[in-house]
Amino acid sequence: MKKSEIRFSIALDDKKVPEAISWSATDAGPDIHFAKAINIALWDREQAGTMKIDLWTKDMPVDEMKRFVVDNIGSMAENIVTATDDKEMANKMRALCKELSEYLDKQEQGQ
Questions:
Q1: Where are the alpha helices (DSSP H) in 1-111?
Q2: Alpha-carbon gap, residue 10 to 37, rounded angstroms
Q3: How confident is the model at residue 111, as a pLDDT?
Q4: Strand, coil or helix: what is 22?
Q5: Is 27 helix (H, G, I), strand (E, B) or coil?
Q6: How far is it, in rounded angstroms, from Cα 92 to Cα 31?
Q7: Which of 15, 36, 38, 84 has the fewest C-beta atoms lying within 10 Å of its C-beta?
């Protein structure tokens, strides 16, 4: 059986606010990669519930954070189709993404 590891490193300031997020993975080569935000969701077997880690750095702009959230919803829409073949649920999530993207476009245009 092949194993792969993903490692996250979070640099915190004196108030425990993330200043830098880096990650590496055995399947991504030897390089260290940097991110402004991470969103990790795990389904806990024993608790039968979701455990989440949401972190973002001080330099993550609000508009990028909003786009990050919309992108995550879109990614979950693709995931639900792959995992369950529930196309209706995915289409509703995609519709929400479209609506939110249009909302963000208007915000960015100052309307």
A1: 62-84, 87-108
A2: 10
A3: 64
A4: strand
A5: helix
A6: 38
A7: 15
pTM of structure: 0.86
Contact present, 19 and 11 (Cβ < 8 Å): yes
User: 25 has which bridge partners?
Assistant: 6
Maximum CA extent, the chain: 54
pLDDT digits (tens, 9 = 90+) for 83-103: 999 999 999 999 999 999 999
Cα 72 to Cα 4, 48, 54, distances in angstroms:
23, 22, 12
Residues 8 and 21 sit within 8 Å (Cβ to Cβ)? yes
pLDDT in tens, 79-88: 999 999 999 9
Residue of 70, 69, 93, 67 lying closest to 80 (CA atoms): 93
Instruction: Tell me which residue of 70, 14, 15, 78 sits closest to 37, measured CA to CA.
Output: 70
**Bridge partner list, 55:** 38
